[in-house]
Amino acid sequence: xxxxxxxxxxxxxxxxxxxxxxxxxxxxxxxxxxxxxxxxxxxxxxxxxxxxxxxxxxxxxxxxxxxxxxxxxxxxxxxxxxxxxxxxxxxxxxxxxxxxxxxxxxxxxxxxxxxxxxxxxxxxxxxxxxxxxxxxxxxxxxxxxxxxxxxxxxxxxxxxxxxxxxxxxxxxxxxxxxxxxxxxxxxxxxxxxxxxxxxxxxxxxxxxxxxxxxxxxxxxxxxxxxxxxxxxxxxxxxxxxxxxxxxxxxxxxxxxxxxxxxxxxxxxxxxxxxxxxxxxxxxxxxxxxxxxxxxxxxxxxxxxx
Length: 305
Description:
Blueprint lengths: L1 H58 L16 E7 L9 H18 L3 E7 L1 H9 L6 E3 L8 H16 L9 E9 L5 E9 L3 H8 L15 H84 L1
């Protein structure tokens, strides 16, 4: 009984230490969510106004440009998948990877080749374990992305869009990330960044129903679109990185809260078992004492005769 009680006490001590760690991780994730939400909110006005500018240029000219013009027979698409560098976030990365797999399957069913671009060690490990080709990958900044990180990711994608498909370029650019809706809800989404859908751009920019003004473009509408293309892609990728970071922290907080609650329940269960083992040990000791006293009394009575 004594050995069993020691086992229970050792397990209680171990689970208590784990509970402290998960509780600390929960609090850290909760504090990071607030910062990530502020960054998402701060990045939205720039992205909205940039989309308005692109919409104005696209609707005010007949220029054919990769930013707004769809290829007649698209043959290759690029898919940017944003996952996490770390685990302990429930199904966060797995859900994003699943959404990317569905998108890739759909594009291939349409007869398009797919070039995969990955952000985050979880996505890189998933593709590497299955020996799938990854055109380019980035890691190390998913918890706290900056605009410089977005520019680094956007560079190869913009270059691929501007190249001809015969030289390794792409006709379409898609992005898969986890959208932060609330502390309890984060949803993987699939967005096509390029070519830009004007109807969707009007809806996102808030100009639906408005009469857009006419512009004269200097030196030309095509040059204006060339200048806006990298900024549009960078801003959208930056916003997606921020959304993904907020979603990851929310998923981590939820997972760590669940782990903390489970640890508390396990401690209660182990404490009850330990109490039962201690009570059984005490009962056994009392029985041994009573049995020994009875045997001694019988021996004494026998010697008196």
